[in-house]
Structure formats: structure tokens, C-alpha cells
Amino acid sequence: MKQPTTFNTHNFLEINLAMLLLSTSGPFGKFITLPVPLTIAIRALLALLFLVLYCKFKGISFGIRSTDRWPIFLSGVLMAGHWLAYFQALQLSNVAIGMLSLFTYPVLTSFLEPLFLKTRFQKIHLLLGILVMFGIFFLIPDFSFGNQNTIAIGFGLLSALCYAVRNLILKTKVDRYQGSLLMTYQMVIVSLLLLPAYFLYDLYAIGQQWEGLLGVALITTVLGHTMFINCFKHFSVTTVSILSSIQPVYGILIGALLLAEIPAWTTVLGGILILASVVVESVRSYR
């Protein structure tokens, strides 16, 4: 099996920019108050338009091998499940809980990657995953199985599972296809799956929230997710997953600045633990 390419400073900067762009999903998801299926349907459709134009401009072929159609289709279904569960978690709680429950996915990835890609399990990834979990524990206030936050965490965990499996599927395709092409096909699938949302919900409020919808489609989806997929060319899926644990920290900071969601001291402590795992994995990867 082909090993991830040793990365340089450009790759390191690219992955960190991707994390910053992806971290806007939490604030955008909290800012948009449309029903979740309608939000995701519009997000996917807008992103699809941008991606098709980009692929046309860059001369990227839309052809894919017949053997890759089902894996790419499955990745699109998982992408829809990931987004639906994640935005539901955001609407039930806040940016911190929504984003941080999702970021159990590095732990899930570290266990699933050896099964999907036949790589050797590394004990350090388990330790770093546990460190991330401790960080998330401190970031979640008033944990109880009887409140809305716990339900939000459940949706976040479902989103994390979908995201982890989707990433592992795409890892096997990035050497063959551009990240923008893979995202284009995923947006086609998500758009088709959520087509009924346009008939089930009132469309009147869409015009009042076009800024958030445009932002989550262009900034988070087109730019962030495309760069994120391209990172799989240079890093293992587990490494990308653990490095991406900085996203909740970015998201919480953006939420504090724009949505006035000020984190408690436990949130700060959890963020420090998550950042520690990111720094350790960054140093390991760079060496």
C-alpha cells in the first residue's frame, strides 16, 4: 500500500488553513435557524454550483472508474448523515458541545483505519485520542443523560462515526481523483437525497438567511472540505483526524466573538488538552 507522502511547510500550512475554514461550520450552523434538512440541502446545492464551476475552470475531468462509483456514492450518503446529525447537535446545544462531540471522530478513526486500510495500529494514536476525549469531557458542561445537551452529544457521536468512515473511504481515492471532483460527486448525492426538503418545509425564510447559507457553502464546504480531502495525499487519515482536533478551538473562539457564546473555565481547560494532542501529533508528523 502506498504510504502518505512526507510533507513540507506548504502542506503543513495548507492543513492548518483547512482546519480554520472547516471550523466555521459550528458558528454558521448555529447562526442558521432553518430546519436542518433544508439547511443541508441548500448548502449542498450551492456548494455543487461552486464546485462544478471550479472543475470546469480548472479543466478537471468528471469521469470516474466504474469500480469507484459505489464507494463514492457511499461517501456521499455518509456525508449527508454527518451533516444532518452535526447540525442537529448544533441546534440542540451550542457551538462548543456540537463541535466537540463531533471530534470524537479521531478516536474512532484510529480504531477503524487498520480495518479499512490494513495499516498498523499505532499505540500513540490511542493515547492522543484519549487525551482528546479528556479535553472533550471538560468542554461539555452539566453532563447528564436527561437533558438536551446529552441528546446533542448523541447526534454528535453519530456525525463523528459517519465522518470517520467517509474519510477512510475517500483516503483510497485521493491519489486517483482531485479533492474538488470527489466533493462535487458527494454534493450531487447529498442534493439528491435531500431533494424532498424543498417540498416539506417553508422556503420563505431562505432569503433572510442567505449570508449564512452562502458562507457555509463556499467557505466551509467548497474551500474547507476540498482542502481537507487533499490533505489525505500527504498524511494518514488518523494523523489528519488528530490534527483537525484544533477545529473546535477555532470554532469556539469564532462563536465567542460573533455569537457571544463565552466559554467557561472548563472549556478553556478542555481546549488546552486538545491543543496538546495537536502539538504532539504535529511534531511527530513533521519529523
Automatic annotation (TrEMBL):
It comes from the Bacteria. GO terms for cellular component: membrane. Pfam families: EamA (PF00892). Keywords: Membrane, Transmembrane, Transmembrane helix. The keyword DNA-binding does not apply. The chain crosses the membrane at residues 38-57, 69-89, 95-117, 124-145, 151-169, 181-201, 213-232, 239-258, 264-283. Residues 17-139, 151-280 form the EamA domain. InterPro entries: EamA_dom, EmrE-like. PANTHER family: ACYL-MALONYL CONDENSING ENZYME-RELATED, MOBA-LIKE NTP TRANSFERASE DOMAIN-CONTAINING PROTEIN. This is Threonine/homoserine efflux transporter RhtA.
